[in-house]
Amino acid sequence: MQESDNRVQRFNENIIPFIPDGDFYFTKGAEAFQKHKFDVATKWLHKAIETDPENPLYQCQMSIVYTEIGAFHAANQLLNDVLTSTDDHYPDCYYLLANNYAHLGLLNEAKKHAKIYLDQATDGDFSADAEHLLDLMHIDEEDDNNEWQFDEEDELLVYQETIFHHMENNAWNEALPLLEEMLALFPEHQSIKHDYTYALFAVGYTEDAIRMELEVLSEHPDSLNSHSNLVMFYYETGRKKEYEWHLNQLLNVYPMREQQKLRVAVTFARTGAFNQAYSRFKQLAKWQLKSHLSYFKWYSITAYNLGEPAKALSLWKEGCKRHPQLAEQEGPWKTE
């Protein structure tokens, strides 16, 4: 018996434990990506990045997965993080950014990043793709004299897309300074003011946010965005009378644009008016809102709170597939 125990002990001592490293997770993620199993690829690549957060290759591959599923904002955020952390020594990021900007319709930004890539990596892996991208956009050097007409519009769109990504992910400290820049650069755009007050409220400047939104409302009494924000502000601060008054202003408002319709639906959901939220969510054109994490999150929460757990789970799963960062949040069944 003693001899048997000794053999077992020697056997155990000779076993070398397998401890997976970042390359192991990365390989698994790349294999899943090749098989178009993007949700599986995302999980493996998350593990790779957690194991070695300084490896730019892992983050670039994750950005490619995000691009494939249409999460261009998340992809661009990762790529810009890589460029910052490597002091611009990872030029592949510029081509990947150019490709994403082209998908978003930001052609000047796409052109700019494609050219930076070609300047830094003349014989790089993506050089032919970058040149082809420029050809597809029909942007040639002789057109430079006309580009000034689009620069301001492109700049505004870049700001809006970046801020949209931050706000969808509750990254308020990142969104706030960009919104302050936008207020200075584009003071004529009213929607910026509403996003700014919302961000102010989110980071704790409660009374400033309410005061600024009331000032805007005094100039534009029918402002949907003002009423929507004030519903949230007063609900969160427990001012029931003011909350109910502004909520009533929204009950009979049916906007034309899908983003505005979504804003109303989410406002109802966030303040516990689930019946009103549900009727609004059902009227939305889902195909126009697939890039909005808030659509899947708050529609799922609404369905769950109205006794439809199967529908809630289906929406949450689809949301996590399209917006992997949603999987990092707790589902509606864990909010009780």
TrEMBL record:
Keyword Signal in annotation: no
TPR repeat start-end pairs: 22-55
Coiled-coil boundaries: none
Alphabetized UniProt keyword annotations: Repeat, TPR repeat
GO BP field: endoplasmic reticulum unfolded protein response; protein O-linked glycosylation via mannose
Keyword Hydrolase carried by entry: no
Extent of the signal sequence: none
GO molecular function per UniProt: mannosyltransferase activity
Protein name (Swiss-Prot/TrEMBL): Tetratricopeptide repeat protein
Record organism: Lentibacillus amyloliquefaciens
